Amino acid sequence: MDKYTNSVQYGKARNMCMSSDRSAFGKDTTADEVLAGIDLSGKTALVTGGSSGIGAETARALAAKGAKVIITARDMAKARNVVNGIRAASGAEIAVETLELGNIDSIRTFAERILARGEKIDLLINNAGIMACPQGQTDDGFELQFGSNHLGHFLMTNLIAPALADVGRVVSLSSSAHRMSPVVFDDIQFERRDYDKWAAYGQAKTANALFALGLNRRLTGRAIEAFAVHPGAIHTDLQRHLTEDDARLFAELEKAYTIQWKTIPAGAATSVYAATAPELAGKGGAFLADCGIWPVNDADGFGDGVRSWAIDAEAAERLWHVSEEMLGQAFVY
């Protein structure tokens, strides 16, 4: 039995004993529990990085509630496996599109295909990402983690913005790792400092949160709200670049209860919550974790809470303009 099939069966089992008390959501809440009582019929959701992990679970959960789902992937064979599993489980309408977030031409071609569909996207979940990889560059010469995790989603989201449905939601997956680094505007691409894979990842995850803040401000006239999400610590393919030293560090953090691992269904819950929760109306720009708004915590280390640098409106505006300059394209709202 593969991980995806197991996740589907786990979701079905949890669905039988879900609580209707939305105030009780927390770390162990699953995506199915978040969606209890919510009907997504007639809605279209786009989930990047939907071929595995919490992206696949997010797509499954939304499809199970009636949404038409489009997932993006680089590995089309893996994506087709997810699509087939979702269709078999719910008979849902689901499609897959190829997208390489580290390649501007791929992003532009993808956006053209999405716009050509002529349909509105109600829920956009920017889920795809890479973590703590060796130093490298995207196909267009950007630092790999910042380029793929932030600039790729920044460009894609802005290009397909005309297809976003009014009164919709945009969710950008950040991480508690944003606590490792703000956006270092003086040296985003590690041209004048030694490359550190965790600082690079932290910077990119801070950028994801700041993008949500900047986007929320620009889309307010269309009643589209954007949120940033820390999904939690989940064992997925995201960790494929981790070394033995990294594994030992995570084991030590887990032993000290600093890191508490989640299941994949629980890992997808906050993304789904941000995309659908009616109680979040009017709270766009917030940073969420464990199916709630995360409090500010500027203490050093891996404690719970969002650091101020990830919800700083001035930094969000600076990042927006820097991103436009790096990509050579401005977006007017």
From TrEMBL:
Signal peptide: none annotated. GO terms for molecular function: oxidoreductase activity. The keyword Oxidoreductase applies. Keywords: Oxidoreductase. Coiled coil: none annotated. It comes from the Bacteria. Belongs to the short-chain dehydrogenases/reductases (SDR) family. This is Probable oxidoreductase. It comes from Aliiruegeria lutimaris. The lineage of its organism: Bacteria, Pseudomonadati, Pseudomonadota, Alphaproteobacteria, Rhodobacterales.
